[in-house]
Fold this protein.
Amino acid sequence: MKTQAHIFPVFTEILQRTDRERFLQQHSKVVWLTGLSGSGKTTIAKHLERKLFEQGFFAQILDGDNIRSGINSNLGFSLEDRQENIRRIAEIAKLYLNSGVIVLASFISPTAEIRDLARSIIGAEDFIEIFVNTPLQICEQRDTKGLYTKARRGLIQDFSGVNSPYESPAAPALEIKTDQMSIEQAVDCIYTHLEAHITITNRE
């Protein structure tokens, strides 16, 4: 999309990311949790947000259901709409990033191309990809909403893992296997990895 001629961004005239990071006493990053529906992404994000808060960090969760009930309520689940869904989310995440906030983004984001789009918008140096790797059968067992059942009956189309592809990340920053660890262990693992990226030296 081309920038319109009558639009004049004022990014250089407002407080910068470094100013906001210094105020919040943290380095902002985008933690991108990807995985199948039911893999545990949102549950991990909620517990991780709480742990970060308890340790003096300020984070904001962006979750698929919440975003789709609001700003992206006009989008469906075709690959084209999913790409637009993630494009908008990445732009929102970038706004938070530039505000000094640690973003916990919990989205299926099913293809490498879609995740690469998010990474390109946010910036590779600030994009921390976490693969919540849970076997499909475990995800189906956890499916309290009955979405997998509906998808297998043909009542839901374009459902990742059933009638739409999910491409596992080739080289995520971290892989979390929720069938082999508790939520607490998963959160501790991510926090340990993240801590070095978000901590300001001589943090008060």
In short: The two ends are 43 Å apart (CA to CA). Residues 79-98 form the longest helix (20 residues). Residues 11 and 98 are 10 Å apart (CA to CA).
